[in-house]
Amino acid sequence: GNYWRYDWYSLDAYDCPAESCIGGGDLPSANCNTSEPATCYAATQELTECREGYRHGSAMCDECVDGYAKDLVGSCSKCPPAWANALLVLFIAILAAVVLVAFTLLSIKEMDGEESDDSIVMTAKIFVNFVQVTSMLGEFKVNFPAFVLSYFDFIAASSGSSGVSINPVNCLLPSLTFLEMMDIQLALPIVILCGIGLVLVWQNHLRNRKRERQLRPVLTEDLTVNPKTGRILDNPMLIDARRSLKMERPLLQVFGNASMIILFLTYQSIAAQCIKIFNCIQINKSDVPGDYIRLLVQDTRVQCRGDNYEAHMGIAAYGLVGYGFVMPALAILFVLRVATYQGWSAATMQFGFLIKGFRLRFWWWEMVIVFRKIFILLLLAVVEDSVLQALLGIWFLTLTFVVQSFARPYIRHLHNVGEQLSLMTALITLNIGLAFRTQEADSGVRCGSVCKGFSVLLIILNVVTILVFLIFLVSDAYDRLVEMYGVDSAYGTRWFSVRNVKNHIISIVLADKRQTPNFSKYTPKFVDDDLAIAVFGALPNTNPRKAITKT
């Protein structure tokens, strides 16, 4: 049995999540006669009993005891030592930072003046979109079998749909409820963006100091006026010195791409958390009308009433509108503004992660994908009837598949095929889920042999789709490495060279030794102070309060 009721006098029993209840199971009798099976069970276990790790007396046994915390699939698992939890949280934070940096570097590769191959980024984006949509399919009320739901729970945890409510965090901060976790997740992208902004400002300051040190030797010489223009700033020596400087990526371009990447990776999870705050369940205490409590499905410690809950409902509404609609709309406006005043090349460089990989007439297609996922989340939150919910989901996925097949918005054929594959897999998954719901309604059996067979095929289909995307990613990554570090053979082919990788690493390590003196300790006097002010805006290495600026 896996049922729970409010107390001994309650008449309503509820199915517990995560197999946490033992109520309703048969108790073995002391006078058991194997020839008469009915005598082997004297009674049933009380419907308020919980399994090990779950708090006895908590609503639907959904609360963990001390030393246990919710894991990836929502079950109470034993917490490791505190130091192990801290290391896990640190590892997850470092992994997230590595993913962010990798996405950013790949999306702005074109800024180095090289030809950009955005195949890896686009394939990764399509794969992430598929994982996020798959994680939402398990929320449809179509009675997926338990092991299929476990697969969906794992995918949801991998895609970040569970937010910051993961086992290491829950073990470190067991007193935080779903409401506080939602507040943290809403503020986390803003905090990360502020941190990235501060880092870029500091990097820009260091870049200016480096530029100053590289130009200083030229400015200490007697520069003559360019005879063609009559300007000292057009002196050939000064122009050559400026050209020799390493061109740095503009601050706004890096910040713009980093912002788009953070929102892409977090908005679906934030929108899902904001919608889940409206999902409550009514627990009847007795058969007396009005004698009930309403609890949050995601965290039964939270009652769906009171000033605190209502305040968080408002926060969730603002978060859903902000992350789900306002920020994508602002992104479109920013792209249009930059494209209008600076051209599409500048818009592609500044918002490359958002619009690169699409045909120019479909540069806004990423917003279609955003609103597609928002619509599925709203469908799960608004529609209560399970059959209607599944039908609307099937019709919507069919429509998006047809539109994708006709529009073909991606530049590369491979990306269009990958997007169609992800949509078709989601569509087949939801159709099989509706068949599960219909089979149970007709026969009254939760999942028979035919159902289990289809469940295995469903898991195989999703796993094969994931493997196809991983093969695409590995193939694109290898092609990129061959392009960057490969050598041409005598037969017209190109092979990956470990020697080229080693030489590239050595050149980076020894780059500082080949630089000209930076004059950090010795500061020669400028021949022309006005020229230095024209280049730097002020005389370098002077008191900022007494700095001479150009008027």
Uncertain regions: pLDDT < 50 for 5+ in a row?
25-34, 36-44, 110-115, 517-522, 542-551
Report the span from N to C terminus: 83 Å
Cross-sheet strand order for the largest sheet? 1-2
The main pleated sheet reads as: 2 strands, antiparallel
Average pLDDT rating: 75
Strand content: 5-15%
Give the helix proportion (percent range): 55-70%
What structural category characterises the helix and strand content?
A: mainly alpha
Total strands? 10
Task: Describe this protein's structure.
The protein has 551 residues and is mainly α. It contains 16 helices and 10 strands. It has helices spanning 82-107, 119-137, 146-159, 167-172, 178-219, 236-244, 251-276, 307-342, 344-350, 352-355, 365-382, 386-407, 413-443, 449-485, 498-509, 529-536; strands at residues 3-4, 14-15, 26-28, 41-44, 68-70, 76-78, 280-284, 292-296, 486-488, 494-496. It has a two-stranded antiparallel ribbon with strand order 1-2. It has a two-stranded antiparallel sheet with strand order 3-4. A hairpin with a 5-residue loop joins strand 5 (68-70) and strand 6 (76-78). The radius of gyration is 31 Å and the shape is globular.
